Amino acid sequence: MIDLRSDTVTRPTTGMLEAMFKAEVxxxxxxxxxxxxxxxxxxxxxxxxxxxxxxxxxxMANLLSLRANTQPGDEVILDRNxxxxxxxxxxxxxxxxxxxxxxxxxxxMLDPLKIEQxxxxxxxxxxxxxxxxxxxxxxNRGGGCIYPPDLVKEISHMAKKHNLRxxxxxxxxxxxxxxxxxxxxxxxxxxxxxxxxxxxxLGAPVGSMVAGxxxxxxxxxxxxxxxxGGMRQIGYLAAAGIYALDHHVERLAEDHxxxxxLAKAIAQLDCFEIDPNNVGTNxxxxxxxxxxxxxxxxxxxxxxxxxxxxxxxxxxxxxxTHLDVSRQDxxxxxxxxxxxxxxxxx
Length: 346
Ligand SMILES: Cc1ncc(COP(=O)(O)O)c(C=O)c1O
Prior knowledge:
By secondary structure, the protein is of the alpha/beta class. It has helices spanning 14-21, 34-47, 58-69, 83-86, 91-94, 112-118, 149-161, 173-180, 185-188, 214-226, 235-247, 252-267, 295-304, 327-344; strands spanning 2-3, 51-55, 75-79, 99-103, 130-136, 165-170, 193-197, 208-212, 272-273, 283-288, 307-308, 310-313, 316-320. Strands 2-8-7-6-5-3-4 form a seven-stranded mixed β-sheet, with helices on both faces. A four-stranded antiparallel β-sheet has the order 9-10-13-12, with helices on one face. Helix 12 packs parallel to helix 14 (327-344). The chain is globular.
């Protein structure tokens, strides 16, 4: 199977498994796991923050970031297609106690003026307190869209003006920085907190990192324990994360090139709608023209022919390239698509 449903489906490479096997471990809840400590230092340094913390998932990283940046009842301003709003089970409301003020972004990118208009009057006690602005980079539903660093800078100025904190859901932050060939700190210097996922394009089996200043990470550590995310001999998993950061960052460019190749091929097929110029990283969305092709049959026939894609809506599909999809696999997907369409076209 060539699995394009998500970049979360990767399996550890032999090198990564060897690193995991050799990891030195201890009890991380006591702060005694040397490999996890090493990973946390490494990520803090990479992101230019005082500290970072290993957590089980991107969803928990976001949940903790919501909780530690706010007080229950606060309001968070974010794009209406944010992953934390659409796909994290409502944990922001249920567990972290915040409410969301949703804005219509441009492929997920927020307009600082619209944010400013959404900030509540802190002097009016009828209003919830706005305390956090939330941005997602790259933006998943925006099609792997990359935040321009200057826009993040502008949003950060606006946040400071209103005494708000700024968090970046950077599940795929390194996809953005590799695509732009910039240092991650070109983004992270503008945000109070961020998270990155080790278990997406980077290819680790588990884990995400939250980064921020020392006091913030202390708070996250307390809430991680409260939420049941304190783990013991996780050095085995941290070793996979260290390996991923050492070996799998620069290669994200290959995933981006494969996604562009696939998008261009899809754009040439008249039963699909896609703008290949909007594919900046490893995620692409496309629509099936239903008069020309049945979306359900497409999904099924692709599966039968060894290709998995994610059907997000009735005629709306997502394909994501990653470590386990080579250039040859991408070419195979293109030829399979053409073959399946020739059989199914109405
Ligand atoms: C932008 C973004 N944030 C957070 C997450 C959550 O990560 P996880 O699946 O590890 O919980 C995802 C998952 O795909 C994501 O795309």
